[in-house]
Amino acid sequence: KKKKKKKKKKKKDPEQENVDHQQKGQQSKGRAYTVSIALPGSIVSNAQSPELRTYLAGQLARAATIFNIDEVIIFREVGGGNVSQDGTTVNDTSLEGEFKGAHRGSDPNIFLARVMQYLETPQYLRKQLFPKHKDLMYAGLLNPLDAPHHMRITANAKYREGVAVQRPVKVGHGSFVNVGLRKEAQIDIALQAGTRVTVQIDDYEGSADRKKVTGKAVAPDTPRLQDGMYWGYQTRVAKGLTEIWTECPFEGGYDLSVGTSENGTNINSPDFEFPKFKHLLLVFGGLIGLEPLIEADDSIQAATPEQLFSIYINSCPDQGSGTIRTEEAIPITMAALKVHLDQAGASN
């Protein structure tokens, strides 16, 4: 008698398992609160080569992604201007147009913002959204963020990031969008070619192998608000400390601002309590710290950090090194505050 062959169980794609986990939501429901970090772009000026400056930007992007940061603000030190690496003053905060690139005369703020923006973008959209640029010369060497919205082509996902493509459509029909699948998805509205959009895929189960994919355009924060999914960070450049607050994109502004320094309150103290918040802002200083920046900025009325921020904290008391670099301070602080953020943000 011939023995019956046992059917081998089909192993589930690890990538799909990861997507399924994300789609269940990092929380049981949507996440209404946001976390923003602000840091001076001048920190990349201390790196001694374009490769090291690029790698530093990659470290910051990885930290922002690991700790679910929703907004990254690159601010210029000492008010409205900033000195580039060749000693010239730069004042532009736009990420559009042509810039000098990642060399000794480049604007560190624009450079850092551009690289972080590039890394946040899913790989399948980068060629469409980012023309060849000197600032991105070494970006291909960086570790990938592996963020939830960086989907593989085989993943069946509820949401996908896409870019509208130049393709003819019937009158009254929406644009076709490259969402990283084998087939372009047609959405419910018409968009100008080259526009980045978040797409909610219709009946997403099995969409990776479907011949026709449809969906609807949604706000970029929909995955977070509706499903509690982390969906990357937004990047902006501020002319100075003041513009961090005045150009806040969230309705009502930041209701809790936190400064970080070795002179702040010890967060490991039993008496430390983190206030409730909806939109949190964490501000990190550069090589000289926050205190000298506040004193030098004439647009700020506050005389001390305690007057400027809601709370002023020390996230690494009894530090062994005389200095903690900004790229080190961010993960140290976020790790120390994680439990506080989960409780204070979710309870608001």
Protein model, in words:
The chain has about 350 residues and is α/β, with parallel strands linked by helices. The protein has nine helices and 13 strands. It has a six-stranded parallel beta sheet with strand order 10-2-1-12-11-13.
Strand residue percentage: 15-25%
As a whole number of angstroms, the C-alpha radius of gyration is 22 Å
Approximate shape:
globular
The helix fraction, in percent, is 25-40%
Structural class: alpha/beta
How is the quaternary structure best described? single chain
Contiguous uncertain segments of 5+ residues: 79-89, 95-104
* Mean model confidence by pLDDT: 85
Strand order of the largest sheet: 10-2-1-12-11-13
Number of helices: 9
Could you spell the SSE succession in H and E letters?
HEHEEEHHEEEEEHEHEEHHEH
Largest sheet, if any? 6 strands, parallel
Topology, number of strands: 13
User: How far apart are the termini?
Assistant: 68 Å
Give structural attributes.
alpha/beta, six-stranded parallel sheet, 348 residues, five-stranded mixed beta barrel, globular, 9 helices
Give a nutshell description of this structure:
By secondary structure, this protein is an alpha/beta fold. The protein is 25% helix and 18% strand. About 6% of the residues have low confidence.
SSE layout:
Layout (H helix, E strand, L loop, with lengths): L13 H10 L10 E7 L9 H17 L4 E5 L6 E2 L5 E2 L17 H13 L5 H4 L29 E6 L11 E3 L6 E2 L9 E6 L11 E6 L3 H6 L6 E5 L2 H6 L9 E11 L12 E5 L6 H7 L8 H4 L2 E4 L11 H21 L2
Parallel strand pairs: 1-2, 1-12, 2-10, 7-9, 11-12, 11-13
Antiparallel strand pairs: 3-4, 5-6, 5-8, 6-7, 8-9
